[in-house]
Amino acid sequence: MSAATLFPAGVSTSSRDEPVVRVRELRRAFGESVVLDGVDLDLAPGEFIAVLGRSGSGKTTLLRALAGLDHGVEGELRSGREPAVVFQDPRLLPWRDARANVGLGLRGDRAEIEARVSDALREVGLADRGEAWPRELSGGQRQRVALARALVREPDLLLLDEPFSALDALTRVSAQRLVQELWTRHRPAVVLVTHDVEEALLLADRLIVIDDGRIIHDERPALGERPRRRDDPRLVERRRALLALLGVDDAAA
């Protein structure tokens, strides 16, 4: 199979109804190990997808391909015109303050960039922390800076690679709510990679399960409008079913 056919960044779609992401027969191998094996996926504008799977199933490899960070994939891949990625590690530059980290790489009118950075920091609740160094921020605040850095680029595709897994339980709940609010306000298409089934059900409208490099399950659970409750019987039922699909005992989880 030939290398992935990549539709160049900046190519506009002809209709709002056309997918932000279109993947056909996507494959990625590292030597003899096949990590993605014929993945097909469409992602509509504004759609929020959570990708679940056991460690080594291919979740993060798929996300890196969508971000344009893996040039070894094969097949057909069209991703967002303006993708942005938030990783598990905020990846802030320690020698730059929060404001400089958010505006990193932006080009154009200086005053306009400063205004956009200020707006992004305000949206994530850090309007008064722009001059703080990364070492002066909590883990949750550093992740908020990373979210602001993604949002300031006005992405049509937001890729989240387990962005809350290193946070404590209370900070994680707050970060989940923030992502939900930001998605409601800006409506990018979102791909969230997570091990947390409950998190996926709280945030996403569509859930995909990957196993051995293939999509084995794709559903749009009927869970009602946001914000969703963890004790909603519908959510509890879907959580139990998805854990079973992943081979996890519900009582142990």
Written overview of the protein:
This protein is an alpha/beta fold and 253 residues long. The chain has a domain at 93-154. 31% of the residues lie in helices and 23% in strands. The radius of gyration is 18 Å and the shape is globular. The N and C termini lie far apart (40 Å).
Features of the shown structure:
253 residues, alpha/beta, 10 strands
Please outline what is shown here:
With 253 residues, the protein is of the alpha/beta class. Helices cover 31% and strands 23% of the residues. It has a domain at 93-154.
Biggest sheet strand line-up: 6-7-8-4-9-10
- Mean pLDDT rating: 89
Biggest β-sheet description: 6 strands, mixed
What is the overall shape?
globular
Output the number of helix runs.
7
**Which structural class is indicated by helix and strand composition?**
alpha/beta
Number of beta strands = 10
The end-to-end distance, rounded to whole angstroms, is 40 Å
Order of helices and strands: EEEEHEEHHHEHEHEEH
Beta content comes to 15-25%
Rounded Rg: 18 Å
Weakly predicted, low-confidence segments: 5-15
User: What percentage of residues falls in helices of 4 or more residues?
Assistant: 25-40%
